[in-house]
Amino acid sequence: MLVWIVFAAVLFLVLLFRISYLFQDVRHILVKLYTSRFVLKYIQTNYFIQDRFSDLVQLQPHKPFLLFRDETFTYRDADELSNKAARAFLQGGLKQGDTAALFLGNEPMFVWLWLGLMKIGCSAAFLNYNIRSRGLLHCFSCSGAKTLVAAEELQDAVEEVLPSLLEEQVKVFILADQCRSADVQSFKDKMSQASSDPISKDFKSHLTLRSPAVYIYTSGTTGLPKAAVVPHSKLWALSKFPSVAGLKSTDVMYDSLPLYHSAGFIGITSTIDRGSTVALRNKFSASQFWDDCRKYNVTVIQYIGEIMRYICSTPKKHNDRSHNVRLAIGNGLRADVWREFINRFGNITVREFYGASEGNFSLINYSNKIGAIGRDTFLHKVQRFFPYALIKFDVDAGKPLRDSAGFCIEADKGEPGLLVCKITATTPFAGYARDLQQTEKKKLHNVLKKGDLYFNSGDLMTVDDDNFIYFQDRVGDTFRWKGENVATTEVADALTLLDCIKEANVYGVEVPGQEGRAGMAAVTLREGQSFDSAVAFKHVEKFLPAYARPRFVRIQSSLDVTGTLKYMKTKLVKEGFDPNQVTDPLYFLDDRAKDYVPLTLDIFSSVTSGKIKI
């Protein structure tokens, strides 16, 4: 009898465990149906994010919209300042349908400029403030913008490319009281003189929800960033995502992510969607993170994996749990850091998600399963939110495996598979601005049946026996470091500009305790040349943002290539930067010495143990 009682109890617990997931699955689908209904309604009625903002200005004019440092901007304040920005743009020659590029960091002005552009029916290109010279010109050009507005502290970067911009008849504005060049105008001056009166809705009369709203840049295999086209409909879908995760109108969201990233920008648009409040920080600071949360009475935080790791690396304090944060929304969180975070800072609900600026697919872990990014459920597929699949992928060949009929093969449970999502009217792929070649590269034809078309995420996933989905790795020539995508071709192109380097094969290597992969370059030297480490350091410092600079360099006599002359990386990645495995000369980027120094066993040990921070 006792055996049967134990058996019944175990069976009950198993069923309860399974049913709890079912309840969560059903609830999540209902929430998605509810939010999707709003997006569909907005598309049908041509209702924009800007319209929602205008309605909120009428409904709650005195409610705090944005908190920054010691300033509070209400919804009415934001409305009036963005009206000024809109009129300044019009006075500067911008017309309906034009695009303006914004080149500045996290500050309220970023939001006023974007809102101002929305009000006059224009789109915005968000330039990464880390890029310089050739990369800056490329990003600006592919957006099609004819106006550039830059922060005062970025004047040097603008002046470096100013002759090229003027040659293309670009209007350049600086957010400064005075400009150093006669060819540059003060946008601050124009705003101060502009009226804050409401802007006519007629300026948006030419737009639909499928018109481009913003251009957000993502690295790829071309060597230079690509401008992902984000239509107004996609902007709505992105903005609704935090609502699905649990964001409420009464929340204060802490946003320390770069606004030029979709992750940071969603913090602003989702605040407008919910009519809540956002606390904006100019740059993430691990030491100030919780002080800020207490100062602004933050209830929801945004993160990427690196941020959480940095927070957990700070010295423990007696008030670690003295805060009102109840929800964390983000991506890239390692399972071990996830556990440490909630154990140390309290039982905060973590909503890990997966998505891409240009993608037509997203996932969210609504079950609090540590390490997962979502669930692969029959309800998801029945509702056909995202007709996705995980297909077998040949990492060495760099392409999906196909059967004798030419169709892709779906991966088994527990087996890594390439995530692809069918391109349909409800799951469109807008592609990259002025880059048809790269847009087509992201499409897969005849995936599961003849004539179908899928978006290639470039990411490998696995599904476990409980149907939880886990991120495995990125494929192709892009890896992630310090929360940024690094294009290996771009880094290789920069390295081969050095007189001493003939060829460069760039890849990412794992570093214990670090998120993503650190950059490493295997290079060959030109005949008669030696590796000039100090010059190499100055070169990468000038031409590459900090996150893209190779942390390790390996000098080889020749680079291995495939039959189609593609660099072979699998073995190099496996060997990494371990002097015990690599007999070639190795160098380490030493920021303090401002040099690439020989990578000794002591340095290797210090890096892998975390004694040397990179």
TrEMBL record:
AMP-dependent synthetase/ligase domain ranges (all copies): 57-369
Subcellular localization: Cell membrane
EC number: 6.2.1.3
GO CC annotation: endoplasmic reticulum membrane; plasma membrane
Membrane topology recorded in Swiss-Prot or TrEMBL: Multi-pass membrane protein
GO molecular function: long-chain fatty acid transmembrane transporter activity; long-chain fatty acid-CoA ligase activity; nucleotide binding
Catalytic activity, as annotated: tetracosanoate + ATP + CoA = tetracosanoyl-CoA + AMP + diphosphate; a long-chain fatty acid + ATP + CoA = a long-chain fatty acyl-CoA + AMP + diphosphate; a very long-chain fatty acid + ATP + CoA = a very long-chain fatty acyl-CoA + AMP + diphosphate
InterPro entries: AMP-bd_C, AMP-bd_C_sf, AMP-binding_CS, AMP-dep_synth/lig_dom, ANL_N_sf
Enzyme class label: ligase
AMP-binding enzyme C-terminal domain span: 490-564
Family from the record: Belongs to the ATP-dependent AMP-binding enzyme family.
NCBIfam families listed in its UniProt record: PRK08279.1
The name this protein goes by in its record: long-chain-fatty-acid--CoA ligase
Organism: Sparus aurata (Gilthead sea bream)
Source species taxonomy: Eukaryota, Metazoa, Chordata, Craniata, Vertebrata
